[in-house]
């Protein structure tokens, strides 16, 4: 016979406490608990926003009021100064409530975290941004992808063009997949810069929402992550001051920000965990009249749940051990770089496998839109589009193993 558990919170504590043994610090525990409380609120609204494809302004107000949007703001500017491991642990918990909320928040938190690490903005500009994030809930994200360019991680020049003017710069172009678009205060727009006597180059420009010539086209109507509001933005003769060009597209000033991709892997692991929890609860409670007990007592179900547990164990172990190693050994980043690709590859692909297995546990009932399982199934597939894509990740891992640069 099965033994009843008090709640999904108890399920979390039992499973997550086994390995990799988190939380390990008071700060990790505090951020994870905060994310858990916000995940409950996000979960209550997730289905509504997913069905309508609307942005969860209500949940993001909660995130701001709780100080969550300031996790990566340095402490000297009023934030929490969270490192990438602390953020990833929290984001996995938030994603259990609503994957769209967690993924959209990742874009903002990661952007601020990278700026905090590289200090590529002037102190005055960065301090102003931090003040707005802490006190007003301001959001920032990159606008880099384009219909023709695809992912900027593949290289190539954007079709969005920046030209010099007498007072600064003028931008013209279109950007796609700009998550958080209707809620952003700042867009970091990647553009191609053409100047006489110089080779064209990529640069990013800080554009504030409401700048004349900047508009949002509500194009986002996707299979998954429907509430991220990743709409197109259109720039038509957007005039900017000279200081709007950012240094963060050139050589990094401090540190190596690549590790922040770990956080998106944690988001997809969180969604997969929510699917796992639903499937476990369903299996313990579902008892067809043809069986003497719940389907949890069937060996077939037990084996599928076991496969899920192994996939989640693998994802967490690789994600968080990689983040820990990166933080502990800054002199070894070149050696560790392939593990960043491995962590992303495993986390996203394992999440897809987990949601497939949960549907096999629950059966046809899991396809109903009255249950969250089909949303988890759809949402995790968005992970395939995050860099490094599978082919690029496998190439990086293979080259590292073979000693090929």
Could you please describe the fold and organization of this structure?
The chain has about 400 residues and is an alpha+beta fold. The chain has helices at about 10-15, 25-50, 55-65, 85-95, 100-120, 125-135, 260-285, 300-330, 335-360, 375-380, 390-400, and strands at about 140-145, 160-165, 170-180, 185-195, 200-210, 215, 230-240, 245. Helix 4 runs antiparallel to helix 8 (about 300-330), helix 7 (about 260-285) packs antiparallel against helix 8 and helix 9 (about 335-360) runs antiparallel to helix 10. The protein is globular. Residues about 1-10 and about 250-255 have low confidence and may be disordered.
Can you tell me the CATH class of the largest domain?
Answer: Mainly Alpha
Helix content class: 40-55%
Which H/E pattern describes the elements? HHHHHHEEEEEEEEHHHHH
Number of helices: 11
Count of structural domains: 3
Low-confidence stretches: 1-11, 248-253
Strand content: 5-15%
Number of strands: 8
User: What would the principal axes of the Cα set say about the shape?
Assistant: globular
What structural class do helix, strand and pairing data support? Answer: alpha+beta
Mean pLDDT: 92
Salient structural properties:
405 residues; 8 strands; 49% helix; alpha+beta; single chain; Butyryl-CoA Dehydrogenase, subunit A, domain 2; Butyryl-Coa Dehydrogenase, subunit A, domain 1; eight-stranded mixed sheet; 3 domains; Butyryl-CoA Dehydrogenase, subunit A, domain 3; globular; disordered N terminus
Walk me through the topology.
Blueprint (H helix, E strand, L loop, with lengths): L7 H9 L9 H27 L4 H9 L18 H14 L1 H20 L4 H14 L3 E4 L17 E4 L3 E11 L7 E8 L7 E8 L5 E4 L13 E11 L3 E2 L14 H25 L13 H30 L4 H30 L10 H7 L10 H13 L3
Parallel strand pairs: 1-4, 2-4
Antiparallel strand pairs: 2-3, 3-7, 4-5, 5-8, 6-7
């Amino acid at each position: 016979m099965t033994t009843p558990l008090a709640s999904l919170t108890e399920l979390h504590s039992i499973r997550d406490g086994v390995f990799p043994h988190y939380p390990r610090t008071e700060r990790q525990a505090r951020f994870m608990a905060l994310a858990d409380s916000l995940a409950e609120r996000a979960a209550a609204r997730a289905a509504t926003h997913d069905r309508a494809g609307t942005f969860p302004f209500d949940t993001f107000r909660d995130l701001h009021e709780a100080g969550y949007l300031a996790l990566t703001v340095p402490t000297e500017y009023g934030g929490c100064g969270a490192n990438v491991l602390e953020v990833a642990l929290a984001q996995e918990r938030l994603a259990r409530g609503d994957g769209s909320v967690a993924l959209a928040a990742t874009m903002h938190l990661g952007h601020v975290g990278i700026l905090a690490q590289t200090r590529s903005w002037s102190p005055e500009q960065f301090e102003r941004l931090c003040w707005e994030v802490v006190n007003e809930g301001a959001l920032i994200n990159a606008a880099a992808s384009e219909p023709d360019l695809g992912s900027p991680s593949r290289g190539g020049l954007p079709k969005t063009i920046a030209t010099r003017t007498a007072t600064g710069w003028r931008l013209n172009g279109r950007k796609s997949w700009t998550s958080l678009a209707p809620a952003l205060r700042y867009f970091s727009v990647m553009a191609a810069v053409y100047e006489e006597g110089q080779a064209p180059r990529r640069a990013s420009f800080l554009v504030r929402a409401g700048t004349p010539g900047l508009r949002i086209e509500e194009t986002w109507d996707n299979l998954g992550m429907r509430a991220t509001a990743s709409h197109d933005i259109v720039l038509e003769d957007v005039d900017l001051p000279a200081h709007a060009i950012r240094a963060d597209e050139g050589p990094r000033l401090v540190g190596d920000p690549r590790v922040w991709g770990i956080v998106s892997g944690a988001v997809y692991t969180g969604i997969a965990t929510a699917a796992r929890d639903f499937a476990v609860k369903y299996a313990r409670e579902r008892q067809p009249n043809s069986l003497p007990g719940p389907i949890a007592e069937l060996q077939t179900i037990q084996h599928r749940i076991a496969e899920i547990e192994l996939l989640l164990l693998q994802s967490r172990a690789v994600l968080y051990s990689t983040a820990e190693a990166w933080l502990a050994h800054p002199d070894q980043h070149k050696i560790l770089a392939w593990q960043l690709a491995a962590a992303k590859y495993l986390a996203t692909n394992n999440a897809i496998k987990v949601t497939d297995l949960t549907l096999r546990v629950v059966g046809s009932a899991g396809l109903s839109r009255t249950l969250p399982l089909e949303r988890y199934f759809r949402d995790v597939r968005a992970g395939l589009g995050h860099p490094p894509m599978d082919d690029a990740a496998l190439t990086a891992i293979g080259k590292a193993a073979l000693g090929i640069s």
